[in-house]
């Protein structure tokens, strides 16, 4: 039976604290802060869309404030993080290479891995020849190879070498050594991560249990049914599936008011849980979030915790979108108060807000409006697009107030 009872507001604060989104940073970020941020989340999802910032950079900005994006590139090149299939394509701490390698080989079901297996069966000689080329000549990018057919597109539209590089990456024979203008640079795994040679491959069942515990640790508090999505494990878990981890003291069951199912907290968050129960956690942070931020990437979890129904619409046909192409949730002092459809026009130095939507029943007083305007301006400045242009708001009456707040904040910087 649950040993503690939290209000929903307390559960939200615990969740935000674990994910690094409870409090506004009090000092400038360091490279070590960036690495710790990724370690805290366990995964940093990669996506190539860059109408604002590419998602992994924006996820870090939401937590660290303004930092040089090159720090993430350096963390990869220096071996602090590596790339893997997990939730989707993700950065993860290099200490977890054996876990991901084991799970991807033995248990994970993902389209990228499945198509890689098909390529291994049908093109092993070509894969071996590509490995020999890299062994002899060093790291390569897909763009090092010219395509011959004039086509382009997704997996099946890629040139052969791109498909084979991705296949060898999925099988673990290649790793991403670094990114060059966000293009993957591939090298032999033993050169990228020499410790792999001596690292035992953990048992799949052991890794499954570790990923469950890691997901709960990253989320701070979660229901059983939300855990599997974090590392994209199968099947979806039930409370009984966690009995062993609870019995071993790895996880603690708690009750959350309004939830019909118990919540789970990792033992490493025992102090944080007590601070939550004692009312010592304060939500002070206001920021814009990536559509692929772990706070919102599970639609059911975001809805249950925040009453925030969020769907990523960049892959939805334009005529079927409700809010826009690349919509950023707005976090304000422990609540998801709205979302905005944005585009950074870097050449012109303009941060365009095509539309900003407040959530139903949300109103912003002057202090809240000023905090949101500051968050928008900070994001715009970090992009090198300091001129903020607000086109539309819902409710419409918010438009003039937001425009004035943005201009006021800009004039006092």
UniProtKB/TrEMBL annotation:
This is Winged helix-turn-helix domain-containing protein. InterPro entries: AlkZ-like (IPR009351). Pfam families: AlkZ-like (PF06224). It comes from the Bacteria. PANTHER family: CYTOPLASMIC PROTEIN.
């Amino acid at each position: 039976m649950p040993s503690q009872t939290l209000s929903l507001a307390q559960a939200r604060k615990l969740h935000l604290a674990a994910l690094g989104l409870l409090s506004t940073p009090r000092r400038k970020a360091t490279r070590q802060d960036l690495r710790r941020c990724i370690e805290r989340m366990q995964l940093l999802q990669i996506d190539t869309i860059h109408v604002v910032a590419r998602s992994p950079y924006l996820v870090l900005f939401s937590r660290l404030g303004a930092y040089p994006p090159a720090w993430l590139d350096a963390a990869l090149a220096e071996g602090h993080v590596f790339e893997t299939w997990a939730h989707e394509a993700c950065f993860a701490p290099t200490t977890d290479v054996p876990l991901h390698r084991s799970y991807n080989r033995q248990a994970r079901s993902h389209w990228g891995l499945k198509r890689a297996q098909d390529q291994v069966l049908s093109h092993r000689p070509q894969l071996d020849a590509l490995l020999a080329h890299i062994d002899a000549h060093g790291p390569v990018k897909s763009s090092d190879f010219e395509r011959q057919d004039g086509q382009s597109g997704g997996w099946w539209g890629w040139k052969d070498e791109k498909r084979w590089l991705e296949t060898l990456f999925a099988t673990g024979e290649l790793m991403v050594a670094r990114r060059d203008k966000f293009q993957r640079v591939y090298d032999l795994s033993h050169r990228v991560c020499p410790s792999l040679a001596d690292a035992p491959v953990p048992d799949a069942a052991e890794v499954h249990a570790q990923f469950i515990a890691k997901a709960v640790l990253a989320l701070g508090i979660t229901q059983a049914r939300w855990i599997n999505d974090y590392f994209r494990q199968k099947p979806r878990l039930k409370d009984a599936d966690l009995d062993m981890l609870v019995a071993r003291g790895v996880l603690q069951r708690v009750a959350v008011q309004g939830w019909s199912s118990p919540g789970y907290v990792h033992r490493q968050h025992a102090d944080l849980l007590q601070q939550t129960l004692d009312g010592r956690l304060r939500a002070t942070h206001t920021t814009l979030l990536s559509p692929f931020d772990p706070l919102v990437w599970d639609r059911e979890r975001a809805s249950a915790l925040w009453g925030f129904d969020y769907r990523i619409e960049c892959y939805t046909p334009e005529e079927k979108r409700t809010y826009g192409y690349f919509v950023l949730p707005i976090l304000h002092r422990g609540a998801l108060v709205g979302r905005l459809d944005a585009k950074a026009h870097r050449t012109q130095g303009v941060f365009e807000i095509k539309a900003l939507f407040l959530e139903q029943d949300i109103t912003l007083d002057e202090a809240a409006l000023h905090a949101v305007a500051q968050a928008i301006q900070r994001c715009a400045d970090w992009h090198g697009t300091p001129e903020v242009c607000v086109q539309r708001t819902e409710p419409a009456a918010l438009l003039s107030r937001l425009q004035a707040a943005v201009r006021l904040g800009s004039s006092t910087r």
